[in-house]
Amino acid sequence: MSQKISLSRYLVEQQRVHGHIPSELRLLLEVVARACKSISHAVNKGALGGVLGSADSENVQGEVQKKLDIIANEVLIEANEWGGHLAAMASEEMDSIYAVPNRYPQGEYLLLFDPLDGSSNIDVNVSIGTIFSVLKKPNDDPRKVEAVSEADFLQAGKQQVAAGYCVYGPQTTLVLTVGDGVAMFTLDREQGSFVLTQENVRIPEDTKEFAINMSNMRHWDAPVKRYIDECLQGKEGPRGKDFNMRWIASMVADVHRILTRGGVFMYPWDKREPDKPGKLRLMYEANPMSWLVEQAGGASTNGRQRILDIQPQKLHERVSVILGSKNEVERVTAYHQA
Ligand code: P6P
């Protein structure tokens, strides 16, 4: 039986053999993985852990927070604040950035995360997940620790040095890229460690499966309506093939399916909130997922431009997302330019 490769060994090889990552980043990713393991344990307890249901609070998006949203956020902050690898953190669940307190050792990285994405699925036992993105603190002068500001976080997604998610489903699986392709690690609960179960993940360039919330159809822009209508016409229509539809309402679970078997995921702009470019968040949802998808041979745009090229103006900025199988994403993007 082939020897099991742990996440730790994979990261050491990325550092020492391939020279892709410095030790500081390796250690940061180990801390994030340990935090995801703790979140997985809390999620798996469900009602037995008294962690289901809503807290009586709202996040910066004005969404009611679930108890597990808050627990997951606290786990990630506590795990990282004294680790010594970070200068600051940003979370969907926090209005402003969290700079590592001066009493702790500080590092050169910025960590952004959605601690528990898809939380409307928590109480109905459907897959949810943690999404994370790592940036370098700009103009990092190791001789002195400058104050970190929100402006330091406002970097385009192509500046990421690591990105990933952990999906809490039938398996707990950590999916990661440091710019050398995409690798998947499944949590071995007996050993308590993440074990490499797939590397060099590739998304098929074509697909017969799309993911979108169809109940919003009447609100979509014309290019999206055209694309979905053609899919629904099946083999008798211009696409010449039948399509299947999936919508889990957990981006992590939908993206995991696409990384595993292809497909196209869409959360486009719609006229319910005309002044907002979309529902999903750029910095800690779209950017990490877009880098993973591109590293696996897929594509990701907002309908008009590559998501990883977008220069953010605000920390909690929203964006339209069309990602997955390259040829499908290019088709939808072309319809926007028609
Ligand atoms: P809707 C979860 O709240 C989320 O941010 C993504 O994970 C998911 O893809 C989307 O929103 C679901 O949105 O409008 O279908 O509930």
From TrEMBL:
InterPro entries: FBPase_C_dom, FBPase_class-1, FBPase_N, FBPtase. Mg(2+) 2 binds at residues 114, 117, 285. It catalyses: beta-D-fructose 1,6-bisphosphate + H2O = beta-D-fructose 6-phosphate + phosphate. GO terms for cellular component: cytosol. It is an enzyme of class 3 (hydrolase). Residues 6-199 form the Fructose-1-6-bisphosphatase class I N-terminal domain. It is found in: Cytoplasm. Binds 2 magnesium ions per subunit. Substrate binds at residues 117-120, 213, 279. GO terms for biological process: fructose 1,6-bisphosphate metabolic process; fructose 6-phosphate metabolic process; fructose metabolic process; gluconeogenesis; sucrose biosynthetic process. Residues 203-337 form the Fructose-1-6-bisphosphatase class 1 C-terminal domain. Its EC number is 3.1.3.11. Mg(2+) 1 binds at residues 92, 114, 116. CDD domains: FBPase. Pathway: Carbohydrate biosynthesis. Its main location: cytoplasm. Keywords: Carbohydrate metabolism, Cytoplasm, Hydrolase, Magnesium, Metal-binding. Its cofactor is Mg(2+). GO terms for molecular function: fructose 1,6-bisphosphate 1-phosphatase activity; magnesium ion binding. Homotetramer. Belongs to the FBPase class 1 family. This is Fructose-1,6-bisphosphatase class 1.
